[in-house]
Batch of 4 targets.
Target 1
Amino acid sequence: MDLAALGLLVDTEGWDLLASLPAYDAGAELGLQTRLREAGYAPELVSAALLQSQLRARAQDKFGTFADAMLFTVDGLEQATRFAVAARHAARYLRAEVRLVHDLGCGIGADAMAFAGLDLAVRAVDADAVTATVAGVNLRHWPAAQVVHGRAEDVVLPTGEEATHTGVWLDPARRLDGPSDARGRARRVVSLDRISPTWRDVQGYAAQVRATGAKLAPAFPHAARPEDAEAQWVSWRGDVVECAVWWGPLVETAGRTATVLRPGSDAVTLTESDAEGAEPPLESLGALGGYLYEPDRAVVRAGLTGALARLVGGAELDDGVGYVSAAAPLDVPWAHRYTVVEAMPWNVKAVRGWLRSRAVGRLTIKKRGVSLEPEAVRRQLRLSGSSEATVVLTRVAGQTVAVMVDPAW
C-alpha cells in the first residue's frame, strides 16, 4: 500500500466504504470486487479497501475487535505487538511513574495505543511514511498521542531532570530493504548490529533516559544482556513472540526472566532465582524417570529449565535440551507432561524394531538438542501399521536417545 492508496482510504468515501464491507471471505472477494467497481468506486480504492478488509480479519487474533477500526500494512501487522503483550509493556511504564513515552519505531502503533490507553502521553515516530500515517490513524482517538514520520536517530530526547518522568520504547527494524522472500516479505536480520536502530544505539538511549525498554527477537543472546537490565522472553500460546529488554525503573527483576501468557489463564513469570539449586542433568539414560516434562518455549529460551526441574523434583536430561525427567506426575500449567513408555540409545534398527512390534504407522517426532531431521528419520524407520506413537529425540549425558512417550497430561 502506498500513500496514494492510503489517502483514498482515509477520505470520507473510502472510510465509509471500508465500514460497509461484509466480513472478509476469500471466496467471495472477486465477486465483491466486481460489484464495487460496477457501483462506481475507483479500482484503486476497491483494491485498497479489500486489502484492509483482509488484514483486519487476520488481525483479529492479535487485536480482537479493535482491529475493526484500525488500518494495517502487511509487514506492520506481522511485526506488531499483540495487545495482550503491549498492555503488559504499558503497565511497566505506568508503575514506573512515567508520564510521557517516546515510541521510536512505532510501526502501526500497537504499543503506542496501549500506552495511550493508560493515559500516558505518547510521541511516536516511524521511518516509513505509510506506516507512520497508518499509526496516526490508529491513534486518532487519543489527543495526547502524536505520530510523526521520521528516524528514531533524529529524535531529541530530554536529559537530566527533564527525563525523570519520561520513557523510551524501541522496536528496532529487523527486516532488510531489497529482495523479499518467497512469501513476499522482507528478509529478517539476526545480527544486533544490523537492526535499526542498532543494539549499540539502543543502549545509548538507555544511557540517556533510564526508563527505556526495547522489543528484540527471541534469539537475543543471553550474553548481550547489559548488567542490571532485565531480559524477558515472552510467549503467547506457546510461541515465543519477543525478548524485551528493560532498564532503570522498568526493571522488575534484573537478569533473565520468562513470562508465559495464555488466554484465560493468569500470566506466569519465572526468574533466575526460581532455577537456582536445580539438580544437575542426568548422568545416564538409566536414571530417566517415569515422566518427561517439556517447559514452555519462553522458559527454554530464557535458560530457566532449572525452574521446572526444581518444581517437579527432577533433572534436565542434558545441558540446554529443555526436557526434564521426574518420577512424579505433577500438573504444571506452563509445561507439557508425558508418560515415558520406553527409552533407548538412538539406533535406527532398534527403534524401527520397537515401532514395528507395535504396528506404528503414524509417528509424531519431537526433537531438541540433536541434529537429526524428523523427515529423514521417518524415511529411515519405514513405518507401517495402524497405531500411533510419539518419540522424543534428544540427549542424555551427551548421548543421542529416543524416548517413546504417551502425551497424556
Note: Residues 43-63 form the longest helix (21 residues).
Target 2
Amino acid sequence: MAQTAGLDMHSTGAEINQTSLEPGEHPNGGEVAFLNILDPSFRIDSSEIRAAQEAGWYARTPLGPAVLRHAEAALLLNDRRLRPASRETLIAQGVTSGPAARWWLDTLLNTMEAPDHTRLRKLVSGVFTARRVERLVPVFQRHANELIDAMTGDAPCDFLPAFADPFPLAAICEVLDIPERLRPALAGWADDLGMIFTLGVPQFLPRIEAALAGLHEGVDELLAMRRRAPGDDLVSALIEAGDAGDRLTPAEARAMVVELLFASTTTTRNQLARAMVLFAENPETWALLGRHPELASRAVEEVMRLVGTMPAITRLTKEDVEINKLHIPAGTFLMIMVGAANTDPTVFDPVGLDITCRRAAQLTFGGGVHGCLGSWLARIQMREALPILARRMPGLRIAGEPVWRPAAGLYGPNYLPLQWDAVN
C-alpha cells in the first residue's frame, strides 16, 4: 500500500465516516500509533508498521483504523457487518462514469452486495470448482516444463515474459478452453486492467478502458462460440449455470469470464514473481523444495503469507461494530493490513520463511462471503509450478535490479532478472 497521495474520500460524495480515531491509548495499554498511509513512501513491510503492531492491534490513519494483528483481521474479514470498500476507493478518485467505472461499480462480483452477490457467487461457485481444474494438472505441469526448456541460466533471464506471464495465461486458457487465436493479447489486456487496483486510476484510465474493450470483444466472441457449440469447459458451464431456473444473463456471463481471466493471470503473475524473489533470498529453502516437491502446498501458503500481492484489503462498516473494546461507527473505512497480520509474531513463530511447519491460516485471500472466489485456482497453479521451478533452477539468484510496479495495488515486479545453475 503506497502512492496514495491525492485520495479524497469526500471529493465525490462517497459516504464514508472518515474517522482517524482520536490520539490515545489502546484499551489494553500502549499508545495508538498514527500511520500516514497517504505518504507516497509508506510501506506495510516497514519498521513503522512493526512498532505500531507491537503497541496494539490497530493504528490510526487519515482514512480510518488500520488493522494490524492476525486475530482481529481474521474476525473482521469474516464479519458480515462489513463489505468491500472497492466502490468508494474508485469513486474517491473521481472515476464515476465510463466503461471502467461501469465494470468496477456494477458488474464486478467483489463490489456487489446481497442479494445479487449471493445469487451470482452461488451460481459461479457451483461450476468453478477445484475438481474441474485438478483434471488439468498434467497440462499445467507440461506447460511449466516447456517454458523452462526455453530458458537458460547461463545469462540473466527476465522471469516475467519467460514464465510468470505465459504460465498463468496458459492455465486459465485451458480452464476456459479459449481458442489459440484469441490468446496472444489476453495477458497484456489483463495486466493493464490490473491498474484499476492502484490509487492512481485516473492516470491509467486510457490503458484500463482499452484493455477492458479488448477483453469484452474477445469474451463476447468466445461466449457466442460456446452458445453455438457447448463443450465440456468452464465457459459452457457458466452459460448453463442455474439454480431453480435462475441463469446468468449474457452481461453477467461476460463479466464473470472477464473477471476470471483478469484475476487468474495478473494476480498469479505477480505472485509467482514475488515468490521467486523470496526464494532467491532463501536459497536453502529453495533447494529443500527442489528435493521435496511434497512441500509445495506449504510453500504456496508461505509465499502468500510473506509476499502477498495485495498487502491490504479495504472494508466499510455497514453498521456499528464493537471489536476488542473498540467502537467502530457505521460507514467507517477500514484498512485491513493483511501483510502485517500475516507476520504477526504472536501467531507466526518463526515469522520468517519455513515450508516445513504448520501455520495458522494466511489472510491474503480475504475471508467470509467476500473471500477470493478463485483462491484455490491460484493455489493449484503455484503448487504445480514452484517445485518444478525449484528442481530445474537450482542455485536461483537475482541477477540485476528488479523494476517494481507501483506498490498501491497488485504489487510485483515488471522486470525480474534471474540466473541459476545450469542442469545437465
Note: The chain has one domain: 47-419.
Target 3
Amino acid sequence: MASLHSLEGQYVEFRRLFRAGQRAAQESIAESEAAATSTLNFESVLVPGLLQTQEYARAMLGERLEDIAGVDDVDDTLAVRMQRQQVLYRRGKRFHFVVTEAVLRYRFSSREVMAGQLDRLVALTTLPTIRFGIIPFDAQLPVFPLHGFFIYDQQAVHVENFTAALRLTQPAEVEAYAKIFGRLAAVGQYGAEARALLTRALADLATTMP
C-alpha cells in the first residue's frame, strides 16, 4: 500500500495536472527551480523552458494545452513561464543545460520565431549561472536520448512524456539519471564551440527565410 501511495504521488496524468489549466503546473515547476541550488536539464527535442523566448514558448504551450489538456489558459501560463526565467539571474544558482543539435534544427514555429530563439541562446551561453552544452549530430552518443528530464539538487528528477509527469525521488533512480546526464554532458560542446553550432544553425535558417 505504501508503494502504491508513493507511485500515485510520483505519476501524475497531465489531464489531472492541468484540470485548472497549465498555469498551476508551471507554478509547481517554478517552486522546484527556486528551491534548488543546482538544476540539471537535458532536452533532445525542445529548447529548455527556462531558455525559451516568449514567442517560442507560446507555440510550445499552445500545442500542449490544445492537444493534451484541452484547457486554454495560454496567456496566464506564458506569463508564469517568463517569470520563471528570473531564477537564472539569482546569485548562488547553478544551471547546466545539455541539448542535442536537433533542438536547434527542429521547427515548431515560424522561421522568424526560431531565429529569435537561437539568437537568445547565443546570448545566454555567456550568463555566469549557466553552463550550456550542445551534443552535435556527429557525436557518438553514450546512451539513447529517449526523453528530456530535470534533476534538482541530486534529490529529485522530473520527467514528462506525452500524457503524464513523473517525479522520482528514490535515491537509486536519481543516481541513475545523474549518471545518464553526466554521460550526455561529456560529449557536449560548450562555450565558443557551442556558439559556433548555434551560429551555423542561424545561418542555415537565414538562407531559407524570404
Note: Confidence is low (pLDDT under 50) at residues 1-9.
Target 4
Amino acid sequence: MLVHIIADYGSGDLAFAEVVQRIKLYLPDAELIPVPVPPFSTLAAGFCIAQLGLNAAPPGTLIYHNVAPRLDDHAARPGNAGEGLAYARLPTGVRVIGVNSGYALSFIKDVAEKFRWAASPAEGSQFRSRDVFPQAAAAIALGLPSALGDEIDPGALPPPPSSVIAYVDGYGNLKTTIAFDAKKVRPGKHIRVRVNDREQEALVSDGTFAVRHGELAFAPGSSGWPVRHGGEVRWMEIFLRGGNAWDLFKKPAIGSAIAIA
C-alpha cells in the first residue's frame, strides 16, 4: 500500500520519522513517502492532495495529511484539541485521511465521491498525527465499519483562492491557482507579472522550454487533474528557465496574490 504523508513538519524533520514509524506499526506493509509543505500551509497541502489523489495511482493508495494550524478556534485549547479528522474517497480510488483544516480539502471537494468524519478524537496530544490519528487512519485503510462517522457537507468547505501561489517546487517554479485557458493564453506575448511588491516581465509560453535560457515565463505547468463532468484543469506556472522564479520574486509565501497585466 502506497501512503503519501503530506505535512508541514519540515523536510527531514524528526516528526516525519516518528509518524512513519507509528503508521508502520499499524500498517506494516505500507510504503510511506513524506511530502513536506511550508508551516501551516493548508493551501499547499490541498494542492498536493489533489495532484497525488486525482491522478492515476496504484490500487489502495492512501494520502495521510496533517497541516493543523488550529485556527478554527482562537481560544485556549483544552487537551490540545484541534480540527477534526476527515475522510474522502476520490474517483481514482485513492483514500484521503487528515485534518479538515483551511484549504486542505478545497481542491477535491467538488469531485470526491464520499466525505465523512473519521471516528477519532480531535484532542489528546499535542502531536495528534503521531499519537492519535495513525490508528484511526489504519482502521479506515483496513475497512473497519466502525472507523467512519457522520457525513461532511462539501458545500461547507471553502473553495481554493484564485490567482495565488499554491506551491513552490524544488526548482523555484511558482505553481498557481490560475487555470490554463487556451482561449486566453497567447504564446509569444509579453506580460507583467506582479507578486506582492515585486513586478517582472514574462513571456507567455505554451511549454516549459519554449523560452530562452534566463527568461521568465508564464505557461501551463505540469500540475493538474481531471474535473467533474469530464475534462481536466491544468494550472499555470511562473518559471525562470535556468534559474529560480521564487528567488527572483524575493521568496513570496504560499497564498501570495498574483496580478497579470
Note: Residues 2-156 form a domain with the Rossmann fold fold (CATH 3.40.50.10790).
